[in-house]
TrEMBL record:
It holds the Pfam family Peptidase_S9_N. Residues 518-725 form the Peptidase S9 prolyl oligopeptidase catalytic domain. This is prolyl oligopeptidase. Keywords: Hydrolase, Protease, Serine protease, Signal. It catalyses: Hydrolysis of Pro-|-Xaa >> Ala-|-Xaa in oligopeptides. It is an enzyme of class 3 (hydrolase). It comes from Pyxidicoccus parkwayensis. Residues 45-439 form the Peptidase S9A N-terminal domain. Coiled coil: none annotated. Its EC number is 3.4.21.26. It comes from the Bacteria. Residues 1-28 form the signal peptide.
Length: 735
């Protein structure tokens, strides 16, 4: 966590106070909702020239990559002070925050539901809570019990993950500080509430998997950090270990990884995991090779005392993205020769893909995930962007469609190998999430995991349309609006996209891209539009590949097509259109901004990948190279250069208003990525519209608290409203 000099902090708080006071005084005599201009912080240019296969590329802000250097920290503080002054002076910003707070008070948010020993575990943030807390339902009808409140650990702590033991008596969970996601693993006894004496550090992606008897678990642990280690080496050479509860971590046994006897050969970037399953004598070795979802899979008898004799099941070329054991039967979800995936079954005792049986063939549906229960293999699927649920019966060897009461997204299925049935979460763009239990007959009943939201969404509707992209491909576009919204090109529209790693933007009310965070805009007659660009997984692996590596420009061109469609159909106009992307979505919106600055009124890039040419220098660099390309090859350089927004900013261009965000503790996208784009745009723009960089010094890639998340969304809405020249009480938009 950043420890700032108190004198520096006081100095900038004083500057912000003076700037805000001056702006409020000016606004009192000026009816415009736009704050008066401020002094944009200076960004020193110290050009570094790289020669990539004969192409010289200039990077004037390479100095920012030393993220802990005092001058970069000072620069971030000045940028944040400027951003907060601009945002704080917008009339109506506080009222927007109050409206968002009122919406968040309408219901609880639930994440990470899991079943174990007949109990249900989940993370929940109730109205008024600042952080997700860990809860358990000991019985389906009984009251929930809080197990872990991260606030009690002191500081801005967050629960990053958790896994209950098969009998539901213990939970392993990761706790980190300040949004850093640098988890320390803890072990809790559920019934008594006591913690085991040991903790395990270097476990941000531990993925603990309990042994069937609940005495210990397998987990992934990063290599020890050495002095002078480059950021890009942070996640290399990790290992899978076996931990016995009650023993010091120093006695843990390495199971998979470089230098481990009997381990399959691994590359430095590989992340090994071991997966145990109750009711099976086997364990799986799942080896991730970076950003690509395809894994290498090995199987062995679970016999720690005698070592592990791994038998190869599949390598990365076999396209296996998920595996599940049911006794001696091993089920594999694969994309090989199946662009929308299929499910194979092999004998775990003698795995041979050449003799695998196809139990669920490839179809028009996209199979997203599989989960084993006592009665069958449950399949989560996408059918034209809508979630579906089917079950492959172990006894009948047939597929059964399971009817669900809501059209939208399906979360889960969450199963237990020893119990029949599954838990599924249901929501759509205008319906808050609920969780239902599906029994072995296919009937579903509501659960007490989350109470119904106190929100009336009847005034709203969802339109599902398609926009024709540059090459004729039809791009799905989801539009949320009031039923009585004006369709005369006067409505403000908030357009968002992601398009990477095969992630599908499924209908969501309370999620990261959910409608609830923009309800004031929709209430005021605006619209929320989600563009399902190529690079996502909405139509399977072919859709992902069409927006990856050298095909990545398709993603932002699809987004531009969706923007043009909204304008051509009379939903909005460029002077009322906002564009948003986050994380890898920063590439898409950054390139859309530089390609068509005339098309948008406001652009938001949240913790965005804004300098892809230098992605490999970050902690996630070796991992994301599989998705976007590597500068170590000529083809990879060309692919990255074509999607690097910092290399496409042009001096003297009239860019729209831009708000970038970053978290100082971001372990995925370092703050110099958004920082560089902010500096480029501030130096280049000729429009007079503000370009601001909002920094969370106690945050990371995701908000470390509910309050910080609401404040960020209030700032974004206020920034949009100010550029439209309106307050939150005014409906419609005007130039």
């Amino acid at each position: 966590m950043l420890r700032r000099n108190p004198c520096l902090r006081l100095r900038w708080e004083l500057l912000v106070t003076l700037a805000v006071t001056a702006m409020l005084h000016a606004c009192a005599s000026n009816r415009s909702t736009l704050p008066p201009p401020l002094q944009v912080p200076t960004s020193p240019r110290e050009p570094v020239v790289d020669d990539y296969f004969g192409t010289k590329v200039v990077d004037p802000y390479r100095w920012m990559e030393d993220r802990d250097a005092p001058r970069f920290v000072d620069w971030l503080q000045r940028q944040d002070a400027y951003a907060r002054a601009v945002l704080g002076a917008i009339p109506g910003r506080d009222r927007l925050l109050e409206r968002l707070q009122a919406h968040s008070a309408g219901g609880s948010v639930v994440r990470g539901v899991r079943q174990a020993g007949g109990r249900v575990f989940y993370l929940k943030r109730n109205p008024g809570d600042d952080a997700l807390k860990l809860y358990v339902l000991l019985t389906p009808e009984g009251p929930e019990r809080r197990l872990v409140d991260p606030a009690l650990a002191g500081g801005a702590m967050s629960i990053d993950y958790f896994r209950p033991s098969p009998d539901g008596r213990r939970v392993a969970y990761g706790l980190s500080e300040g949004g850093s996601e640098q988890s320390v693993l803890h072990i809790l006894e559920v019934d008594g509430g006591e913690h085991a004496p040991e903790t395990i550090d270097r476990t941000p992606y531990a993925e603990p998997s309990w042994r069937p008897d609940g005495t210990g678990f397998y987990y992934n642990r990063l290599a020890e950090h050495t002095e002078g280690m480059a950021e890009a080496e942070k996640y290399l050479h990790s290992r899978a270990w076996l931990h016995q509860v009650g023993t010091p971590p120093e006695r843990d046994v390495p199971v998979l990884g470089t230098g481990v006897a009997g381990s399959p050969a691994l590359q430095p970037v590989d992340s090994p995991y071991v997966q145990a399953t109750a009711g099976s004598e086997h364990v799986l070795a799942m080896i991730s090779h970076g950003a690509d979802a395809a894994m290498s899979v090995f199987v062995a008898r679970a016999n720690p005392g005698a070592g592990y004799h791994w038998k190869k099941v599949a390598d990365a070329a076999d396209g296996v993205t998920a595996a599940a054991l049911h006794g001696d039967e091993l089920y594999l979800l694969t994309r090989k020769d199946a662009p929308r995936f299929k499910v194979l079954q092999v004998d775990a005792n003698a795995p041979d893909l050449a003799r695998a049986r196809t139990v669920v063939p490839c179809s028009e549906r996209v199979i997203q995930d599989i989960a084993v229960a006592a009665d069958g293999l449950y399949l989560s699927e996408l059918d034209g962007g809508l979630g579906r649920l089917r079950r492959y019966g172990f006894s009948t060897r047939t597929l059964t469609e399971i009817s669900l009461p809501l059209e939208g997204a399906v979360r889960g299925p969450v199963t237990e190998p020893a119990r029949a049935g599954a838990l599924v979460g249901l929501q759509n763009w205008i319906t808050p999430e609920s969780w239902r239990y599906v029994d072995d007959s296919g009937q579903s009943v509501s659960t007490r995991i989350v109470a119904p939201w106190n929100v009336d969404t009847s005034p709203y509707l969802v339109e599902e349309v398609r926009a024709r992209s540059w090459d004729g491909t039809l791009i799905p576009l989801s539009i949320v609006r009031r039923r009585d919204a004006r369709l005369d090109a006067s409505s403000p529209v908030w357009l968002t996209a992601y398009g990477a790693y095969g992630v599908s933007m499924t209908p969501s009310f309370s999620g990261v891209y959910g409608t609830s965070r923009l309800m004031p805009l929709v209430e005021d007659g605006g619209m929320y539009a989600v563009c399902h660009v190529r690079g996502g997984g909405e139509y399977g692996d072919a859709w992902r590949l069409a927006g990856a590596q050298e095909n990545k420009p398709n993603s932002y061109k699809d987004l531009l097509a969706c923007a043009d469609h909204l304008i051509a159909r009379g939903y909005t106009r460029p002077s009322a259109l906002a564009l948003e992307g986050a994380s890898a979505g920063g590439i898409v919106v950054g390139m859309a901004l530089t390609a068509r600055p005339d098309l948008f009124k406001v652009v938001f890039s949240r913790v965005g990948d804004n300098n892809p040419l230098r992605l490999e220098q970050g902690a996630d660099g070796p991992i994301v190279a599989a998705e976007f390309g590597s500068t170590r090859t000529q083809a990879g350089f060309r692919a990255l250069y074509a999607i690097d927004p910092t290399q496409h900013v042009r001096a003297g261009t009239a860019y729209p208003a831009v708000m970038l965000t970053t978290g100082f503790n971001d372990a995925r996208v370092p703050p110099w990525q958004p920082g560089k784009l902010a500096a480029h745009l501030q130096a280049a723009t000729a429009s007079g519209h503000p370009v601001i960089l909002r920094v969370e010094f106690e945050g990371g890639h995701v908000a470390s608290s509910g309050a910080r998340s609401l404040a960020e969304h209030a700032d974004m809405l206020a920034f949009f409203y100010a550029q439209l020249g309106r307050t939150d009480a005014q409906t419609g938009a005007r130039d």
